[in-house]
Amino acid sequence: MQDPNIRPISVAEEVKNSFLDYSMSVIIARALPDVRDGLKPSQRRILYAMHELSLYPPKKHMKCAKICGDTSGNYHPHGEAVIYPTLVHMGQPWAIREPLIDPQGNFGSVEGDPPAAMRYTEARMTQLGGTLMSDMEKETVDFVPNYDERLTEPTVFPAAFPNLIVNGGTGIAVGMATNMPPHNLGEVVDAVCAQIDNPQITCSELQAHIKGPDFPTGCVILGTNGIREYMETGHGSVRIRGQAEIVENGNREQIVITEIPFNVNRAELVKRIAELANEKVITEISGVRDESDENTRVVIDLKRDARGQVVLNNLYKHTALESSFSIHMLAIDGGKPRVLSMKDAIACYVEHRREVIIRRTRFLLKQAEFRAEKLEAQLLALGHLDDFIKIIRDSKSRDEARERLKAYNFAVSTAEQLGILIRGQASVIGDRYIFTDKQVEDILELRLYQLVGLERDKIKADYDEVLVSIRDFMDILAREARVLQIIKDELQAIRLKHATPRLTRIEAAEGEIENIDLIPNDPTVVTMTHLGSIKRTATAEYRVQGRGGKGLKGMETREAQGEDEASDFVERLFSAHLHDFLLFFTNTGRMYVERVHQIPEASRTGKGRSIKNMLNLRAEEKIAAVLILEAQGQEDEAMWAADKYVLFATKDGTVKKTALEEFKNYRKDGIIAIKLDEGNDLVDVVLTDGNKEVCLVTHEGMCARFHETGDDPETPNLRAIGRNTAGVRGITLDDGDFIVSCITNEPDTMVLVVSENGLGKRTAFDEYRLLANRGGKGVTTMNVTEKTGKVVAAKAVHDKDELMLMTTKGQSVRIRVCDIRETGRNAQGVKLMGLNEGETIQDVATVVTDEADSGEEAAPAAAEAGAEPAQESPPAEDAPAAE
Q: Which of these, 648, 741, 749, lies nearest to 703 by C-alpha position?
């Protein structure tokens, strides 16, 4: 008999779920820092274990073995051996800008020497490290049970200074990684205060405070473009150089290196310089030696006739003396990984400190009210001491005394005369002041020495002081400005005590120009899959083939891993140049913007990367359409000219026209492009000049053609309306039909229609009746049959254009438009591409061609590259026209 507790499961499903659980555990609870306190869970637990051991200055250091043991046994059950390196890193002054650990003993070196064993080294927290946990006992943060529920641990520290920005951090999770540079504490505090004063501050204005990274090893940053880029977007790259100078030594020159780039191993750098000299790559070096102590000093001796500057430039070129530091500011925000700009990181920290201040004030207010309640009872008792003593003496037990004191008839007016705070209706019934149970206990606990005059005055003074505190706490909770001012004041106090001068210098790079100017404006093909992978590939990798060819493998797609999982397939491709802008429109009607060169490059068969690494898409969003905006210069406002319009078409036949200039103030998180009803999706987007003919093509082969302006310019068919609007009816659809494409009538173009089964045809625009008004049903554009399949796309094409066709299984073929025969509007078309069983056409795009990449020159070029020239396929027979 089968055990009822045993049930069959899908191995693929179990492996998928287990890996997702593992991935989230690594991302959230291990590898990435929290945006609020800048710590990973292991770092936070080490510091909290040291807090429990009271390892604050000026207390003596404690063995690292004890610290690691307590951390492992109480909070982080992964063994002391894996905890110790994390502890060591927080105490290495060359690895962290503001050390959180004060080490004693051998904690390694900048040359990569390992630290001594944990039984030999000792540590305590630095004063700055201790401030991360200040006020933690005042209910400022949440505590959760530890791994075995014996103890509790904080989910985050109060973080009196922005540790994430100051010390940065690194971490490799599953599918994502972070690499945040350190910054100067004083500059960061100034920037936080500036953003509190002006929440609308720009990144360029923040850069007036935060000059850029401030590495603990000093060094020099070349140029500001990389700094501006990562501060605005959260990712970028900066070039850093070690500090070196050329000095005279008799009749020879020496190069003395006094600072090395961040994360560069000094011993490896010296070794590499010696190798270059021995291998005669740099022949002017006669010797190199490391004279460093606690400060870096590497001396390179040059030959008699050597030119020091030439040698130094070669060292920058061939060694890590000049290197690149890639920045990706990824941190956990609200339980989710998020790429942060500098402004975002500051905003998250300010919000965290705001919550800490409010929670601390509430705690202090509650404590002050408890104190006021006690002092209030004592003052009332001392004011009527004889009555209270008589009540107590006449009582037979403590319980009787408690009841008689609570029933004592004490007038509100008398309490007011004594200066007692009337704490609302809970303390007053009619004209009587009612003692609470706690106050009665406080009266019974009065000591005889408190009856003397001086003690009574002291109680009254303490009570008045508590009342002032209560009013102050209530004012803080009532006024947001007070909370923000406290954040600024506390940060300035830390700045005054702990800020140090900037170590890293920033210098202008020679002939500094925008990164875009270093990128050739080459044509490329951008490919996107149904599950959201994206890549760009040079057009030369797709050789020209004859109509009807089998095509080349265009993109590796992921196969289904189980019965419940769908295979990925190529959903769209389009051509652009590297300098162009891509306007991504999602099915929900939002728009995102990215430059083409920022899309990851991959080979023709490469899988690409998830588009979520580029765009901050929402969970329910998919890319529905992409608009290419040709770059006319990086700062050229002509790209967003007022005489250009964006034309939208939705699945249910709605169209909308909006001026392009309304989209120029785009944001990284996207903006609303069109308002959609529930269940409707955005299908296509085109760019117009406001005076075009529009063709709406449907899945069932219908086409409605109308002019944007119509017969009467005073009442145009399509009037330009705002971004956050829904649009108007463009075509009347039959049941089950929907729009697949929206095209405009460009000069010398024809309508190209392609069906699922690889058939296509070109037809003149004039064959489609021009409707007087939008909203009509239209006419047939392709005779849809079982042989042709439904219509998948329509394009406006020129004779000189080339097409890229991609199938659901990743096959692609590039053909010339001129090879496609012109047919009538109601014909089925000709065969464009041979398809395998179960394969259908998924997307079609026109390809931007180069002279060296088209025509007869394509095959020789492929042969020179070692590829087999494409063979011209015989044309297929035309499919018969419908009657």
A: 741
Spatial distance between the Cα atoms of 654 and 649, rounded to a whole number of angstroms:
6
Confidence bin at 375 (pLDDT 50/70/90)? confident
Return d(Cα 778, Cα 775) in angstroms, integer: 9
Residue 50 makes CB contacts below 8 A (sequence gap 6+) with 67, 123, 124, 125
Please state, in angstroms and rounded to a whole number, the distance separating the CA atoms of residues 75 and 690.
Answer: 65
pLDDT digits (tens, 9 = 90+) for 843-876: 887 765 544 344 333 333 333 323 333 333 333 3
Q: What is the pLDDT of residue 862?
A: 30
Q: Can you spell out the DSSP letters for 456-514?
A: HHHHHHHHHHHHHHHHHHHHHHH-HHHHHHHHHHHHHHHHHHH-----SEEEPPTT---
User: Is the confidence at residue 635, as pLDDT, over 70?
Assistant: no
Question: Considering the domain boundaries, does residue 792 fall inside one?
Answer: yes
pLDDT at 195: 94
| CATH number of the domain encompassing residue 306 | 3.30.1360.40
Q: How many domains does the chain have?
A: 4
Tokens in use for 365? 């207010």
Closest CA to 523 of 817, 204, 854, 812: 854
> Which stretches of 630-706 are DSSP H helices?
none
pLDDT higher than threshold 50 for residue 426: no
Token pair belonging to 259: 């600072």
Q: Which domain holds residue 315?
A: 243-320
Pairing relation of β-strands 570-577 and 523-529?
Answer: antiparallel
**How many whole angstroms from its chain centre is CA 788?**
45
If phi > 0 it is left, if psi is from -120 to 50 it is alpha, else beta; for residue 107 that is alpha
pLDDT tens-place string over residues 724-765: 888 888 898 888 888 988 988 888 889 999 999 889 989 998
Determine whether 75 is an active site residue.
no
**Which residue is catalytic, options 75, 120, 463, 768?**
120
Last residue of a domain, one of 455, 478, 501: 478
In a domain, 226, yes or no: no
Mean predicted confidence (pLDDT) in 87-104: 94
